[in-house]
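Exercise 7.
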Amino acid sequence: MSAYGHQMEREFSAQSLLSREDTGTEMGSRYVVESGFYMTSFAATIFIAGLLTTGVLLVTLVVTLAVMLQSCESRSKGVVQIHKGSDFDHYCKAFSSHGELNILKQSDIPPVCRSLAFGYIEHGEYERDLNLTISMIESFFETISPSNSHPDVVLVDIDDILDSDPAFSCQLIRQHQFNLRYGSNKPSGSIEDANNLKQRLTVELCMKLQFRGWSLILLSRKPERLRNVTIEHLNTIGFISWSSLIMRSDSEIGMKSWEYFCRRRRAISMKQGNEIVSVISSRMDALTGSSLGKRVFKLPKP
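Solution. The predicted structure, written as tokens, is:
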């Protein structure tokens, strides 16, 4: 092709391009994107509105999920807390039975159960259980009468009302003082109140049984050398009469408590045809073994 032909071609191409640019300028309704994608202003408006709507929906969804998650978490925490409290309560009740069956010391009680033990007294639950048990004992003896042909006896564990673990009591008192100092609710009862209640109700029960003609034999884990002190203590709390007071002899000091009680009950049953009608105690060592009579009653203890 001649040089003149090439020049004509270039001029024609330039004119064609200029005409396109002029057309685009006159219409004024097209956007040129560098990637080569063209979009009208109407389509762009719709696209941007769609993006905004989608963003609002996503934000709303995220907020809703966050609120739901927080609500579920709060409910879950509440369930766990209640569940843990229930676990502690059941654990301490199970430990109490385990401790009594194995004659564990009160100082072996876990700290969490010490707090619950004080609450058991403070909230009036101990008083309620003690009253219910005393009522059951009285109801039982209302259905029977002492025999005229042989002596019927009722065995009463007096260590329930005369003895306590000083170390354990001091721990509970310190816990109680801590609760008072640091804002806990004012208690409706105390360890001293519980002990006084136990003494009063037990003495009243024994007096009622004696009035109905039952012979009472008092049993203690203490050694014989403390007899006079024990009698004085019994008289101080209003316990002034009984059929017999049995305490450990020197040969029985090394015995386990349950063995000592079994031995004494067998001796009572064999002596002059005595019949043991009932044994009353709050401790398992006095309520296990042979010669327990017709009915045993376990008084509640924290």
